[in-house]
Amino acid sequence: MTQPSKARGTALGFGLLQRYVTGLALRPMMLSLGVVLAGLLLERVLRIVDVLAAAGAPVYLVFALSANLVPHYLGFAMPAAFALGVFAAFSRLSSGSELESMLSSGVSVWSLAKPLMAIGAVIAALNLLVSGYLDPYSRYSYRAILNSSVSYAWRAHAPAATFINVRDGLTVTADEVDNTGRNLTGVFIEDRAGDLETLTTARAGKLEVTPDGKQLQLRLSDGVVLRNADGQRPNTLRFRELVFDKKFALEAPPFRPRGGNEREMTMNELWSEMGEAAPSASYPKLSAEFHSRIVRSLAIVFLPLLIIPLSMTMRRQNRVANMGVAALALILFQNVLQIGETLAEKGLAPAPLLTWGPLAGLVLVSAFLFTTGTDRPGDSAISRFTDQLSALGAAAGRALAPLFRRRAAARG
């Protein structure tokens, strides 16, 4: 009764060896996903904290903004983590002679690669779901929160020693602000309205709610108002107490509707807009965005074909060089795809050609490396090339060694 079960498991591509290799790949993949995602987010979080602190917005908003960045950075973290997981799995198999034992017993590398490609297909579907449906909403939410908290941060309190553009032509700053953010010292206001420039300075100021409870007003004490219009003589007004004539909203006005650009559209919305006679964005931009999302996700499926031959190294060989080649290949693919997407947005060529072309190149190179480098572990075109570079480096070192010794002796 157990033999049919084993046969079914093997037929599905997940026999005992396949499950073992899959487990070796999944563990480092999950660890790498957390590390890569945390690293990408940390750099952005530090910038967000600086922006919020400079604008005087509540710093706790960094959590809401960071959460909306997760779908965006998952699109970068998932392929990188998957590639690292595959590399770690086959590097371990090679270093422990397990791979050689499997090959000598008749197990093919292709049979070990199939379940990894199946996992890649699942990750590709998740990546398309994230980039095609979650990221457009989170991208819009991020911009809406940032607009509400930074562009209109002064509606609730004023940061010290910071110029705040409250609205078009109106700039406010204060030398000192108390803990409440409402009591100001050393107030300076610049108000430009057409040809009229009004400068207001005051010893102190206080932000208070208007009697109707709907807006904020600024009550100033002991100050000067200077009005300067083009072609007229400036006039000055001194005051003991003055309520500034401009009111400030307690709440930010509604943010623009989602879909302001193609990156805020879901896959269905992009497809629908591409069929419209008068789309919200140009057809080349919509098409480039649509196809690039699909291509970036599909590329994950073929990563095992590229990574496996580079990770099948002998114990005495340098794995760092092959890892560098793999990273360079992925970076090159991303850059070529980005260039193709930019050219497609400008309408220089059809988007399917410029986006699917890099994917075809990646698949061809990966298939070539897999078919020529999996018969003998560690013997591939890349490994032979890196071995030649290492040999040339060693020969150059031996040739230059006497020169360095003579210089060292002369200095001594």
Report on this structure:
By secondary structure, the protein is α+β, with helices and mostly antiparallel strands. The chain has two domains: 12-150 and 263-393, no CATH class; 156-249, no CATH class. It contains eleven helices and seven strands. The chain has helices at 2-11, 16-55, 61-95, 98-104, 109-151, 267-274, 283-298, 303-311, 319-345, 351-373, 381-411; strands at 164-167, 170-177, 183-193, 196-209, 215-229, 235-243, 248-249. Strands 1, 2, 3, 4, 5, 6 and 7 form a seven-stranded antiparallel β-sheet that branches. A hairpin with a 2-residue loop joins β3 (183-193) and β4. It is elongated and about 95 Å long.
Overall body shape = elongated
Spatial separation of the terminal alpha carbons: 80 Å
Question: Number of helical segments?
Answer: 11
Number of domains: 2
Pfam families: LptF_LptG
Keywords: Cell membrane, Membrane, Transmembrane, Transmembrane helix
Organism: Methylopila capsulata
Protein name: Lipopolysaccharide export system permease protein
